[in-house]
Structures are given as structure tokens and as C-alpha cells.
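sry for the spam today, last one i promise. C-alpha cells for design, 388 residues
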């Protein structure tokens, strides 16, 4: 597909986007730590982003959080077409890193090492969210206009499956023609046109208490039962679906046989039918004997998102913009859910993985490649200038 020029005379390569300026602004966002389960911290991040977008002229609407999570923010930018269906630029501002991880003495404090800049959430996905905002800024400062109205939606709970914001996401997506998601770019710089299905589960084992020193044999350990079940669950992984347990808690006193142990599990599959089978298998699990109980409760699920003609047409438009900027982007389906699972499964043309390049997300080595900031911001800007 040939390169597609931006509408009118404004082209993305002509926009004033500088890597050092982008990095400095991104640093402010990264140092405003916002782990999902700390609603107050997430809301401080929402405050920061809201203020910056308000200064750009956006109409800010705050949607109160629920279920113990932070707020959502909806920002609508003025446009000659008013509130006509347009583009939804959607990002989550929650991270997996506890407050203090990025502090002055934290293990993931902001720092730069050559082309790498480190910090909590810098790649997943504050980097993408920030360059999306700055792409809009550059268009407006150049006296330009996006081809369609742009709405920015910022959400607080993607890292735990989006239990509180899914209805907001789906409602907003229905009001728009396209959904753009600046989650991290794929390792080869490509974008995401589909994602695997994901299911989460709560696990609970219940045993029988006893004194671990004096009457050990009379007890039935919930921890021991949970360990048995975890090994069995993870052993179910095959080429069609993966199973993993990532959270576990149990016990209070080392001299007491534990009565209750809890855990959380996740399963991922490329096809919805495979995920449906994993759900059946998980819900069928029982205790290993009649003196210990084991229960599985289904938590949030992300549906499989398979690329359709609308999404692939959107990808081709993005590829044309990228080629005009001097690089190429490949399409791919990806594991690891995003809120694109919801909008893509709804049949709304969705393009994910439009964010920054980097690696190590969800670890203490999370980083972005500074050299990717400007090209990826120009890619987003080019889409916002040409879609229609």
C-alpha cells in the first residue's frame, strides 16, 4: 500500500516533536506512581493528565471510580464536526508497580542509560498514553485539525482485567468509528490486530486447623492442598492454552496448620473455544480428599479478538502512514490482554500496539527506547490526521 499523505498541507513529519521534550514530559507521568490497587495514587495520575489535556483545550469529564478502583477520565477535543463519531484514543494509567518502586531510592527509579529510559509503567503504558497526548498537542500547535473528532479515554484498572471500567470502554467505543490503543509496540516494532482470550480465577483451599507442634497429624493444611492444586493447574498447559498462578496467600502463625489459603490463576488461549474449555476444566477442580475443600470462582474474562476487515483496513492505513515516515509495521495477534480485546470483539475497527518501543514491562527492568518516542508519536499523529 502506498504512503498516505496527511490531510491538507500538514504532514506528521513536519510536526514539532522532540525526543528530549517528550522524555521530560513522560518523566513527570512516570514519577507520579499509580499502581492499580491504590485508587488515590491512580487518581493523582488522572489529575495530572486531566490538567495537561485541559490546557490543550479538551473538555474534561471525570467518571467516578467503583469497586475500589480509581476514576476514569474522558477528554473531548473541540472539532468542527462536534460530537460526531470519530476516533477513541484509549489508554490505561494504572501500573503493576507499588508506590515507592520509582522513588528516589526505588529499584526502578527514573533513569536513563543511553537509548533506554527506565521507570515504573514507562512502557506499559504511560509512554504510549503520553505520546498520544503530545501528538494531539503538536497538531494543534501547528494550527492543524484532526480529520475526525478525537476522544481520549483514560482508565484505572487494565492491569487487573478492567473489572470496573469495561462498561465505560464499551459504551465509549460504540460512539466512535475507530479505536486507537498505544499499548507497547511489538518487539519488531509491529502493531496488534488481535489478542488472545484471557480468563482469571479466584482459588480457595480450606483445611482443618490444629497445633503444628503438638497435634500436627490432626490438621489438614490448606497451604499443602493449594500447592497440590497449583502443580496440577500449571501442568494443564498445552499448545492450545496456558495456565498459571501468580498470587498466593495463606496462614498467619507458623505453629498453626493453615485453615485457609487463597490464590489467583490466569488462563490464556488463542481461540475462544479453547478458553471456554479452560474455564470448564478450572471450574471442575475439587479438593484432593473429603477433609479438604477446594473451590474455583471465575473472575473477569477478556474475549478473544480476531482481526476482521475493518481492523485490517485500519492497519493498512497505519502502515501507509508509517511508510511515509520511513519505517514499516507488521500486523500480529498477541498474547497478554488489553482493552482492545473488548473493542475489537465488538467489531469496532481497533488498532493496538501503537505505543512506544521498549521491554521489561511488569519487571524492575521496564524501559522505553528513547529513539522510538518521536516516530511513534508521528505515527499516531498521522493516523489522527488521515482517518475518515
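last one done:
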Amino acid at each position: 500500500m502506498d504512503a498516505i499523505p496527511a490531510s491538507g498541507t500538514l504532514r506528521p513529519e513536519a510536526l514539532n516533536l522532540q525526543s528530549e521534550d517528550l522524555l521530560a514530559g513522560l518523566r513527570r507521568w512516570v514519577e507520579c506512581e499509580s499502581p492499580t490497587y491504590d485508587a488515590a495514587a491512580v487518581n493523582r495520575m488522572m489529575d495530572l493528565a486531566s490538567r495537561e489535556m485541559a490546557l490543550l483545550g479538551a473538555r474534561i469529564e471525570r467518571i467516578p471510580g467503583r469497586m475500589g478502583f480509581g476514576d476514569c477520565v474522558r477528554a473531548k477535543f473541540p472539532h468542527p464536526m462536534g460530537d460526531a463519531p470519530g476516533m477513541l484514543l484509549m489508554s490505561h494509567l494504572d501500573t503493576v508497580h507499588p508506590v515507592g518502586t520509582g522513588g528516589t531510592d526505588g529499584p526502578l527509579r527514573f533513569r536513563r542509560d543511553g537509548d533506554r529510559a527506565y521507570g515504573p509503567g514507562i512502557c506499559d503504558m504511560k509512554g504510549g498514553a503520553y505520546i498520544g497526548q503530545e501528538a494531539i498537542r503538536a497538531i494543534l500547535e501547528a494550527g492543524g485539525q484532526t480529520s475526525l473528532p478525537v476522544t481520549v479515554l483514560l482508565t484505572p484498572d487494565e492491569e487487573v482485567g478492567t473489572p470496573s471500567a469495561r462498561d465505560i470502554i464499551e459504551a465509549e467505543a460504540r460512539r466512535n468509528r475507530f479505536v486507537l490503543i498505544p499499548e507497547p509496540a511489538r518487539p519488531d516494532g509491529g502493531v496488534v490486530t488481535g489478542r488472545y482470550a484471557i480468563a482469571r480465577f479466584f482459588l480457595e483451599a480450606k483445611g482443618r486447623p490444629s497445633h503444628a507442634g503438638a497435634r500436627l497429624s490432626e490438621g489438614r493444611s490448606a497451604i499443602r492442598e493449594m500447592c497440590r492444586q497449583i502443580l496440577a493447574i500449571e501442568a494443564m498447559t498445552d499448545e492450545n492454552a496456558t495456565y498459571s498462578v501468580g498470587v498466593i496467600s495463606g496462614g498467619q502463625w507458623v505453629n498453626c496448620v493453615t485453615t485457609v489459603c487463597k490464590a489467583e490463576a490466569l488462563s490464556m488461549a488463542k481461540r475462544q473455544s479453547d478458553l471456554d474449555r479452560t474455564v470448564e476444566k478450572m471450574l471442575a477442580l475439587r479438593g484432593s480428599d473429603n477433609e479438604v475443600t477446594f473451590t474455583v470462582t471465575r473472575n473477569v474474562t477478556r474475549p478473544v479478538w480476531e482481526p476482521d476487515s475493518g481492523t485490517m483496513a485500519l492497519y493498512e492505513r497505519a502502515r501507509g502512514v508509517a511508510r511515509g515516515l520511513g519505517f514499516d509495521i507488521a500486523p500480529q495477534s498477541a498474547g497478554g490482554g488489553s482493552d482492545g480485546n473488548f473493542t475489537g470483539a465488538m467489531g469496532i475497527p481497533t488498532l493496538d500496539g501503537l505505543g512506544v518501543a521498549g521491554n521489561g514491562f511488569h519487571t524492575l527492568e521496564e524501559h522505553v527506547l528513547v529513539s522510538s518516542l518521536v516516530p511513534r508519536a508521528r505515527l499516531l499523529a498521522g493516523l489522527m490526521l488521515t482517518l475518515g
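The chain has a mean pLDDT of 95. ok im logging off now
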